[in-house]
Amino acid sequence: MTQTVQHDDAIQVHPNSNTVDAPALSIAGVDPELGFAGGETQVLGLTTALAGGGHRAELICDPAGRLWERAIAAGIRCHPLRIRNAIDLSAGIRLRAILKRERYDVVHFHTSRAHSMAPLARGFARALVVTRRMDYRPNRVFAPYLYNRAVDGVVAISGGVADSLAAAGVDRRHVTVVHSGVDCERFRPPTPPQRADARSALRVSDGEFVISAVGALEPRKGHRYLIEAVGSLASTAASVKLKCFIAGQGSIRGELERAIAQLGCAGSVKLLGRIDNPRELLWASDVFAMPSLKEGLGVAALEAMASALPVIASDVGGLREVVEPDRTGIVVPPANPEAIASAISRLAQSTGLRSQMGAAARARTVENYSMATMAARTLALYRACVRKTRAEKEERDRFK
Q1: DSSP annotation string for 271-312
Q2: DSSP type of residue 30
Q3: For residue 92, pLDDT beyond 90
Q4: Are residues 82 and 202 both part of a single domain?
Q5: pLDDT by residue (tens digit) across 120-165?
């Protein structure tokens, strides 16, 4: 369990202290996105964990979105809110009406469009919290106001994200690093029959070496460099039968399809499109690749590690914190297909190395990146923010 210690304006979270007797909180998460990506996985997992811990945990989200659908199916109470853009004042008015009616202790804003609503929610909950997931530098004009003054606490999902906030003028004392979490019971190593079934579903033959990748088909994810690496190996490494499956959808699918055709590796690389359940793909795989050019943390890599796969990861953002070089995977320079190809070849040639790295990856994820750990640390921040705002109110009241 967790406890926090306050020093001036700083909020320090200590996740191993006892708060068994602390009262339950009333919490609303705000996420208006229509799709269901890594961020929504975290939002749903956090909300489910908080509710399971006896807290009143609800969501404010778009009724046309996949988060709404999945949350309702999980038994989570949802309140409808459609946010068109960062200047949607009508959405802000509707949000304030929800908050006034429901009287939450904490409101947690999870995405950039949700962040824009945070200043409008001031005074309608005891504490406001935002999560920053991207590792690029936010707007230097808006960021200091939002993160330093408009909210009571900021979650950065990695040290790299915290650094980007600081570079934009955000006070580091206002930022708490809470790594994203993984359901380590769901994402686990497969049994031999489960692995055989997963490979059969993808029509993977005996002896084929499978590399998988999961992520939006956008330039920042670096899939082009993975395709180039597999293409070069497919044409030169005759002793290794490679299959690469890339799951996801996005704006550069056509560009990637053309690259596959130009490199002549259509027999080795398959674009699977969006998949709702990546677990079976991971179970069919020998190695997971995340060749991102930017990455806040890399939940897909964590899911692969929890499934006992070694990870080939770019040396960027939060991936530096997730993957331990030559222990849980291989770290390569970004935008470097030669280095990716070398890493694939090294892992393909050694079953023992893959097994050793996969076991270490699983152990690291269970110890440091479980959904329960993420929820406990987030809850600690909530309590710290509530205590801090209460103390500030009492101080103001003394001088009235």
Answers
A1: EEE--S-THHHHHT-SEEEE--SS-SS-HHHHHHHHTT--EE
A2: E
A3: yes
A4: no
A5: 999 999 999 999 999 888 887 889 999 999 999 999 999 999 999 9
The amino acid at residue 251 is S
Which phi and psi (to 5°) does residue 4 adopt?
A: -125, 150
Residues 334 and 375 in one domain: no
* Residue 191 backbone zone (phi > 0: left; psi -120 to 50: alpha; other: beta): beta
Average pLDDT over residues 213-240: 91
- The secondary structure of 309-323 as a DSSP string is --EEEESSTTHHHHP
Residues 6 or more apart in contact with residue 18 via CB below 8 angstroms: 1, 3
pLDDT tens digits along 163-212: 999 999 999 999 999 999 999 999 999 999 999 999 999 999 989 999 99
Q: Is residue 186 part of a domain?
A: no
> What is the C-alpha separation between 110 and 38, in angstroms, rounded?
12
Are both 281 and 346 inside the same structural domain? yes
Q: What are phi and psi of 226, to 5 degrees?
A: -65, -45
Report whether pLDDT(400) > 70: no
CATH code at position 233 = 3.40.50.2000
187 located within any domain: no
Give the total number of structural domains in the chain: 2
Helix axes 223-236, 337-348, angle to 10 degrees: 60
Beta strand extents in the chain (DSSP E only): 3-7, 10-14, 26-31, 56-61, 78-80, 106-109, 127-132, 153-156, 175-177, 208-214, 241-247, 269-273, 287-290, 311-314, 329-332
- The model carries a pTM of 0.88
Residues 166 and 204 in one domain: no
Range(s) of the domain holding residue 76: 3-181+370-398
Please tell me whether residues 155 and 211 are part of one structural domain: no
Cβ atoms of 44 and 71 within 8 Å: the answer is yes
